[in-house]
Amino acid sequence: MSSPQAPEDGQGSGDPPGDLRSVLVTSVLNLEPLDEDLFRGRNYWAPTTRRLFGGQIVGQALVAAAKSVSEDVHMHSLHCYFVREGDPKVPVLYQVERTRTGASFSVRSVKAVQHGKAIFICQVSFQQAQPSPMQHQFSMPTVPPPEELLDSETLIDQYLRDPNLQEKYRVGLNRIPAREVPIEIKPVNPPPLNQLQSMEPKQMFWVRARGYIGGSRGLVQGRLWRRDGVLAVSCAQEGVIRVNPRVSKSKL
């Protein structure tokens, strides 16, 4: 599988060898082969939830699938299911099933296993590169360029300086800067402090790597555009939303 090109607005070719892309390829995405279509992945991040970081599992599973196809095909579709929480204290085994290998399309199934049970499964479809006579996409929203926006760290610092910030928000915001997140995020319309509880269920961000390179369910759909307006990625994720019931303080 061909390596993705680094973003054009990233750092130049003079970056040190320890840039983000090199770190990912040589550590997180460097799987240990155990047998044919069987790999072992190491864990590098343990979120505050003390569960495995989902992005790491997806990335390692995709690498395992790509090792079972030829280098002249490209992944075009990925369907993922997180079935159990991951244990950051033990490695993850990735079992690849070669579901179909065709002339134009190849499909691979990957199962991530810990303690003898599947924690994650996915279906990956690869396609031979070929010309496309038709092109269409969603239009990119009209937003200010990232140079005109504040990053999340600066916004958090502004929130924390406000003496009216509720303590429950202060505790959560103080935890965020302590995490080592390799992604820079710039919200397009950050909410004022007094509107944190009444935000619209829609947010827009500029994001880039810091380096070279119902019924209790919520559905999130995302679209990522390049700076030149070309739609690069469409994604959707469904997750469980649990809301603590509010207890009425009425004296009646």
Automatic annotation (TrEMBL):
Lineage top rank: taxon: Eukaryota
Keywords annotated in UniProt: Hydrolase
Pfam families per record: 4HBT_3
GO terms, molecular function: fatty acyl-CoA hydrolase activity
InterPro entries: Acyl-CoA_hotdog (IPR042171), Acyl_CoA_thio (IPR003703), HotDog_dom_sf (IPR029069), TesB_ACOT8-like_N (IPR049449)
CDD domains: Thioesterase_II_repeat2
Any GO BP annotation: acyl-CoA metabolic process
Residues covered by the Acyl-CoA thioesterase-like N-terminal HotDog domain: 44-127
Family: Belongs to the C/M/P thioester hydrolase family.
UniProt name for this protein: Acyl-CoA thioesterase 8
Primary gene name: ACOT8
